[in-house]
Fold this sequence. Notes:
Strand content: 35-45%
Shape: rod-shaped
Largest sheet: 9 strands, antiparallel
CATH topology of the domain at 261-387: Immunoglobulin-like
CATH class of the domain at 261-387: Mainly Beta
Amino acid sequence: MANSLNKVTTKSILDATIATADLADDSVTLAKMAAGTDGNIISYDASGNPVAIATGSDGQVLTSTGAGSPPAFEDVPAGGATINNATANELVTVASTTTQLDAEANLTFDGSTLAVTGDTTSKSLSLTDSGTSNTILTVATDDQSPWAFHLHNKTYHDGNSGLKIYQYNAGNVHIRNQGNSEYTNLFFEQGDGSTTRNLVKLQSDGVVELYHAGNKKFETSANGITVTGDIFCGTNGKGISFESSDNNGVGGTATRFDDYEEGEFSLSGSNSITFASAYNTGSYVKIGNIVHCQGMLQVDSDNSNSHFGFMMPFTSVSGLSDSADAALCSVGTYDWNLPLGSDSGNVYGLLSANATQLNFFQGRDSSARVDLAADSGAYMSFSITYRTS
C-alpha cells in the first residue's frame, strides 16, 4: 500500500513556500488581514507596495497628490465656489476672487423683465461688441442726470461718440450727438434703407435746417433766416406768427406779430344806425401792424341820427400825438343819396388814435367840417389804411 499524506501542519510548511496560485479565491477574510488604525485607507506607494493613508479629520476630503505619491485627506480650499445671499430671481455673478459666486440683489430677472435697481447714481446697463470690445449701447446714470441713454458709434468709437439722450436735473430731456464738435451734426431723417431724406439738420455751428421732400426750405444763419418755397402756411388766411415776451423774452405778457393776415368783418353802425344786409361787410389785409380795409355799405335805417360811422376790425395805434396816429379814410366815387348840404365838398372818414370806430364827415368850402348825415338808402364805398398796435 502506497504511502499517503493525510495531515499537514503549519510547522511542516516552510516560509514563502505557498504560491499565490495555491490560494483559493476569496479565501483570505478581513479577520486574517493585519490590524490597522481606524479610518485608514490602503493605497500603494511608488514601488507598488501597499501603504496606509492616515485618517483625516471631520470635513476633509480625499484628494490626489499627484503621480508617485499616495492620496491624502486635505481641507477644502478656502473661498470655494459658493453662492452668497441668494434669493429668488437674482442673477449670479463671479466675484473678483473668481472662486466665489455672488447673488446680485440689484440685478434680477423674473423670466420677462431684466431689472437694475438700487442706488440710481451708480447703476448702468451696457451692450458691448465682443469682436471689437466697443460699447454699442449704454443705459446709465451720470453726473448730469438721473438717467441717460447713450447709443455709441461702433465704427468710430472713442468712448464718447454716438447719440446720447438724457434727462437733466431740471427735468428736461436732452438729445445730444456726442463727439468732436467740429464735425458733429444732429440729423432727423426719413428713409427706407435705400433712400434717405433729411427732415431736420442741426449743425454743430448752431445752424438749423428744415427740409421738405428732400429739399432745404428753411435755414438760419448769422445774417438771418432764409426761407425757400411755401412751407409756412397758416389757416384761415393767416401766415407766420411770431410770439415773444416782454423783458427780453423773460416773463411778462406774451405778444404776437402776425406777419400776414386777411379776412372779412361786419360793418356795425353807430348811434343805432343799421346797414342793409347786402352791403354791410368789409374786407381787410393786415401785414405786421399795417391794416388796409375796404368795402361798400348801404344805410338801411338812419333812425333820425345826424351822423354815422362803423367799427374797424383792429384798434388803431396809440402812443404818438393824436394827429400823428389818426388815419383818414378816402371815400370812393361810388356813392349817392348822401346829404352833402348846399356847399360842395369832399366826404372823408376819420379814425382817431386808440380808436375802433371810423366816423364820417363832410369838408365844405365855406365852413368847417360837419358830420355826415346818415340818410336811409345812401350808398358809400370806402378805403382806409392805418396802424394797429
